[in-house]
Amino acid sequence: MFWQIIHIIEILLWLLLGASAAYILFFALVAALWKKPVSRLSVYLTAKILSMRADKYYSYLILYPAYNEDRVIVNSVHKFLGQYYPYKSFHVAVISDHMQPETNQKLSELPITLLQPVFEKSSKAKAMQYAMDQIKEEYDYVVILDADNVVEPHFLEQLNETCAKGYKAIQCHRCAKNSNNDIAVLDGVSEEINNTIFRKAHNRIGLSSALIGSGMCFDFKWFRQNVYKLTTAGEDRELEALLLKQKVYIHYEENIHVFDEKVSNKDNFQKQRLRWMTAQIQSLLNLLPYIPAAIYTRNIDFIDKTIQQALIPRSMLVVLSFGLAVLMTLVSLTWCVKWWLLFLFICISLYVSTPKQLRRHSVFGKILSLPMLVWRMILNILKIDHKNTDFIHTTHGDEKSKVHSS
Fold first, then answer.
1. Are 159 and 237 in contact (CB under 8 A)?
2. Is beta strand 216-219 parallel, antiparallel or unpaired with respect to 169-176?
3. Mean of the pLDDT values across residues 132-159?
4. Which residues in 36-151 belong to E strands, given as ranges?
5. Which residues have CB under 8 Å from 345's CB, separation 6+?
6. I need a surface site. Which of 3, 30, 170, 390 has the fewest CB within 10 A?
7. pLDDT tens digits, 314-369
């Protein structure tokens, strides 16, 4: 009787982990096997910018919500101002929250709008809402960038080409700009796997891309109407839900890069994952009540997004499936077979989802750091408060990080 109960629990655990693994494997194979016609942007050359212009120049408001980002914000804004795009067709606004007077002084000398709100409790959502309150001008699109994000000089030219196709929501290809240690490399690889599974593969079969939180572009009128509905620290997930409820398709443009600084120490990694896990639980709880209506209206995008929020994080899947496979091998050679197969399928999924240039050099030399990072993620489970809406800030690494320069 005892072993029957253990066997039932073991099967239930396998089904729980297997459901997340099956989702990842399916979209990994879609990205690898479902080919898409080459975009004009994939052969984009800076020297040919003028020949690639859309019929018109759209106007863009660039928002930088910046909380305690004194180390990076001035450099990021300064680089963005070097865009190969008509100066009158874009404007940069920095929402300076808890930054030093010296930083604000440097920003005030640049041709931008500097906003300095005073929040009792800061959040990115509040910063964006404040900006939309203060900025009265109308634009065609709004672009959201993090304070550490660096883009190439033809970023707006490329984005303009994509906007000309009529998309109201665009997620650009956010990728790592630093690889100064094992944690930063694994964080960057994790982002690329997300890009493959939740963005590229989804678009390949007609589903909406997931948002990331920066490198996002929205129709200005839509954004102004909906930004005030954001209430949590997981503003990107809330924006996704709002878009999908309204059946607005989210396009992923993998050829427009936004370089993002990856976390490079254990404490920041743990804080970042705690914020993500909290946002994931909050999002799942917020989405579930709308599932019956989504099923009735056949809103496949919304149903898929809800399923995403229920997935077990991939790194936890790897470690848990391997650990349970080893344990089951000691308990029963019959029971362990399905666990080793599960572990194999998860590894295949992650291998296929990782860009070819990162598979050997970037991942397999750093893999020993994974168990420690997963242990910190497991500890985070004890700290999750699904009712908490406070912003959990993660600081950036030291100045010696290897940073992409445009």
1. no
2. antiparallel
3. 96
4. 60-67, 90-97, 113-115, 141-144, 150-151
5. 21, 22, 25
6. 3
7. 878 888 898 899 899 998 888 999 999 999 999 899 889 988 877 765 555 445 55
